[in-house]
Amino acid sequence: VYLAEDTNLKRKVAIKVLPQPFALDKEMLARFEREARILASLNHPNIATIHGLEKSDGQQFLVMELVKGETLAERIMRGPLPPDEALEVCRQIAEGLESAHERGIIHRDLKPANVKVTPEGKVKILDFGLAKAFESAVSGEAPGVDSSRSPTITLESSHSGVILGTAAYMSPEQARGKPLDKKTDIWSFGCVLFEAIIGRQAFKGDTISDTIAAILKSEPDWKAIPETTPLKLRDLLLRCLQKDPHNRLHDIADARIDIEDILTGTPADIIPAARLAPKWRILFWIMGGLFLIASSVLLWKIFSPSRTKPGQVHHLMIRLSERAPLAPSGIFPLGIGRTTLTLSPDGSMLTFVALADGHTQLYLRQMDQDDIKPILGTEGAHSPFFSPDGRWIGFFADEKLKKVALSGGEPETLCAASLAFGGSWGSDDVIYFVPTDFTEIWKVSSAGGVPEPLMALDTQKESPEYNWPEVLPGGNAVLYSHRDGGVAVYALKSGKRKMLLDKGSYARYSPTGHIVFGDRGKLRAVPFDLDKLEVTGLPVTVLDGIKTEFLGAAQFTYSKDGSLIYVPGVDATLGTLMWIDRNGKSEPLGLPQADYGAFKISPDGDMVAIPIKEEGSTDIWIYNLIRATLTRFTFGQSDSGPIWTPDGKWIIFRSERGGTNHFYRKLADGSGEAEQITDNEPCIGTPISFSPDGNLISYICRTTQLMDIWIFSMKDGQAYKPFLQTQFTESFPAFSPDGRWIAYNSDESGRWEVYIRPYPGPGGKWRVSTDGGEESRWTQNGKELFFRFGNKWMVAKVNTGDKFGVGKPQVLFEGPYINIPGYSYDISPDGQRFLVIEGPEQGLAVGQLSVITNWFEELKRLVPTGNE
Questions:
Q1: How far is the C-alpha of 519 from the C-alpha of 514, rounded, in Å?
Q2: What are the pLDDT digits (tens) for 45-66?
Q3: pTM for this structure?
Q4: Alpha carbon distance 91, 23 (integer Å)
């Protein structure tokens, strides 16, 4: 690049000499000229202008605007920018990108070295679109081919004629050579913003390959972000640096708006994370109720009915304040998979779950009043829902379905519901709910009684794994979701079921004639004919950035008058596998974010069998911990729950191939075909553990709304034997290393606790946990038993010798980490490390509760039903 003078217009310019390949190839040069003309059409104060493409003495060069000052890279070399300076620079970068994106032009090589800051503080983006333009020419694509879909050039930058996206700022899709859109610039913008704040790159390796590997598999060092960084800015960084472009911030304009909000907000609006230190998570959760109280008061005062005109749509984002320093992610932080908010049918009351004084509880806000009151007796509650008349609230707590009158009084227990996933109160005073860990939909009178299954299922052939039911208006049908995704409807009179959507979860009916549902961090809607019980159009995304839990619960609620309240956030389905030592120190396993199922480490500790869900189907993969390679183990099936035989030669798993559920086995080296080993099972089962001789498999057996523990014999063939059948729910049966004991969970005390019984019995039982527990695992020497409860990982000493004994459990470390169906963790053979799944919002606070009044007007505009 040279300083030059335009002798025609008498101005200083910069000229960039083109490399020889362009000068020698007329066809490539012609294509580049066409691209350059498009780029020259950009006219924005934050984009350095291309004046023209010239030729002199056979040498091609670009004439560009001369921008004085230093690059952002040069500025960062002196250290991180102060927050206000970093935000102002990045705000201007976002403005420039926004203008270009509106014209369909992407940069593809955004980095600090391509950003200049003038002495007056004006930001100019350099080389805008040149990566795309040069790549189009180099790729030699035919005329008419969309150059934005060409593969990324990955030659060394020292090679003549190559301009490429710089490795440290490439998006994952760019590094993989996939088709690109404007979200690749949003990723790079996040990298630039991170570097401006921290003073070092978000992704860096010793070589280009190492850097690209870090982009594909690792996360930025989130802990390096200064504690004084506003929580809203942390959230913006997280959304920009989502590896999956579908979960990434979709428009750079949203980043600009967020930054402007931070820059123009009051100190109370942009309270930094340091205000929650040193034990910010604990304080963060404890103060949850206080924030929502303050935010709800502010919400009603600003958007009360008296201030909102009919049909007028208002959007509100309530930020943190020093007087109520907690964001809505504090709402039920341990309730992974459960719902949090519910509005009364008429929109006059909001009920929510918050954590205060170490426990969750329901709170009620009368929307026309200023005070919020805790609902007494609702400790441990989750998934609240209103009665049709708005006088009662149904909820789940203490492994039971309960209700409480808003007029006062103690909650009433209706029936058992040990691992409930959603409830809905019909106009006929029947409550439909999923009582036990995705089993099936049951119904019970709102007065209480013995629950009954809603559908007639063949549990030997069907997998009754449903959740989030909702009674449709008129009480003639129930919407529900499938565990693996998809929305269906059940007609109560005919008993017929119908799949409506193959993707999505937590479907709710809208009086506008739509089904609204969550789908990986998005809120989507589809026209729906209530009389015919069928969709009449295609789903449309109506909101992006809604907190969606790992098990499908989308955190939103709306009333019949069209008021919508939701918790902003991302899709928690995509997690990252992490090693955690006994002191809570974490280290990424090295795999990218994915939708992981219950995994199992091999007996020698060298490999991990991991179910991964992609496009609605779950397959098992094998990750070699020594060689850091991931290999597909099963293909195109619904396979889950892998366990290794004690010798490590075989993997046993559950599969739904052929439309039925059975246990299969396959050689761990991947050779051969999967072999079905069970048939005519008494129930749908999930394999949990092997006896040390490799003969017996303990598994969870679902025959009713409860779960029991059964044993399957490999040698005897088709030999099924119950080990523990009671009126309670039992699960996670783990053989001890010597095969003489089984540790398991039971809710006989009113909540999940860990017990040990002798195998095969008879004998007594010993309770291991003292304050809740589940998912127990033995060390290989049988001297310790690990388990988890909520966000705590515990260990208890065990003596399995002549005199059996159990020590007092001790806390090893605290999460939270994602709680998936089945085991949510495994332990290394030496018992020193734990493999867990970290969520995309791990350790980050959601800084606002979002509200849209008269939202139905937007819904009808975005998704016409044809009836307007």
A1: 15
A2: 888 887 777 777 767 777 888 8
A3: 0.58
A4: 38
